[in-house]
Design a protein that fits this description.
Blueprint (H helix, E strand, L loop, with lengths): L5 H24 L7 H9 L5 H35 L11 H16 L4 H24 L7 H24 L2 H11 L8 H20 L1 H7 L3 H6 L4 H23 L5 H13 L3 H23 L10 H19 L5
Helix pairs in contact: 1-3, 1-13, 2-3, 3-8, 3-11, 3-12, 3-13, 4-5, 4-6, 4-7, 4-11, 5-6, 5-11, 8-11, 9-13, 12-13, 13-14
Amino acid sequence: MNQITVPIKIGKILAMIILLIILIGMSIILGYTDTSIKLAYEAFTMFDGSNEHLIVQTVRLPRALIAASVGASLAIAGVYMQTLTKNPLASPGILGINAGASFAVVFVLTFFQVSSLDIFTWVSFLGAAVAALTVYFIGNVGRQGLTPMKLTLAGAALTALFSSFTQGILVTNEAALDEVLFWLSGSVQGRKLEILTSVFPYLAIGWVIALIFTPIMNVLAMGDDVARGLGLKVGLVKITVGILVILLAGGSVAIAGPIGFIGIVIPHIARKLIGTDHRWLVPFAGLLGGVLLLAADIGARYIVMPQEVPVGVMTAFIGTPYFIYLARKGINKG
């Protein structure tokens, strides 16, 4: 792999920051209701209570910020999961974390009619944590211990199990089906800013830990034996990374539902563009994840206008061809 110099890496990160800001602006302006840059600016500087100003402030801005935050969180979680497990297929979706969080939310919504955002968030985190711990435990069973193949199979099995439970609950409860069907597809539409603010502290903690741990992940990527030889407490690092993934993935599902492919595709694209050094890879992947989810959400508004396609469908539409490309090329060589 060609070495990428530091000035080029800095330039790429700055370019990604600029692109993220541009897409946030486009997300605020574009949609079914006609708006303009001037109108959006006036909505924040000279708010008059008009329908257009209300849409900009209460619908478009929260939607843009949520898409950027969720995209970044899922991408960073994917980077850390792939490094931790030495499995290029690892992601919150593949390893059952999204399915576990989704099942927990649907279960509580159906049987307890919970509407509190705080409870909703913690339930999602709990589901993600149970799924992650279960996959890790199953993957460790056997003589060889934890291997990428066993981890992938355990994740696939748990995803199928939780998905079956979720579908079983929804089949027997039409009211719950109507309430969560759009959410289960993965969407940032109609989400209020309060949802993001209730979860944001947990996402922010995950981002900070992710940035602090980038040098440690470079060491861990060399292998557990090498990392131990260099004095790294591998067990403690893995526990911390597991908590990080639960914070980022569980928080993202609590906000927007299970959005797939961001966590598995973005890390591979980011490695090709900026290299494997986690000090650069993690922030770049986070920015790229936000960019992709914002772009997908903007596109979702126009495909069947005036209706909207859930952004989870758009990310699957974008991510599936690249995932197939990785599989055909030989993902371990990517």
